[in-house]
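Hey, quick one: can you model this chain's 3D structure?
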Amino acid sequence: AAIQIGDDVLEVEGSRDPKEQRHWINGEFNGELKRFAGHKIRYSTNGNRRRYIIYLGNGSKIVIGAFKDWVRVDFTKPTRELFGNTVGLFGDYDQGKKLARDGVTVMDDTDAFGQEWQGPADAP
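Sure thing. Here's the predicted structure for all 124 residues.
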């Protein structure tokens, strides 16, 4: 999963080894996890689960969870102010439309939509 806020990018990759922390901050492998895009960030583990929490203020946060090879992203208390101009798998904030990378084409096929936003295998 990749989260971009402004110019900063956090990427998280799953791993079968629960002790293996695999993330990149602005391209730096396992970069320091104190602040991200001006926001507090916290990393924790619990058994096979790893969690990255980006605190956005007023109770809003982005939670990236990893369990073995699986990664998920959850949003807590999303607001239009924070997420109104998001792109990607989050979809259109106002209407929930699944928009292609061009920002215009509405995709009804969920599998095709996921493939549209999947990064290439050789992506950094």
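One thing worth noting: DSSP finds two helices and nine strands in the chain.
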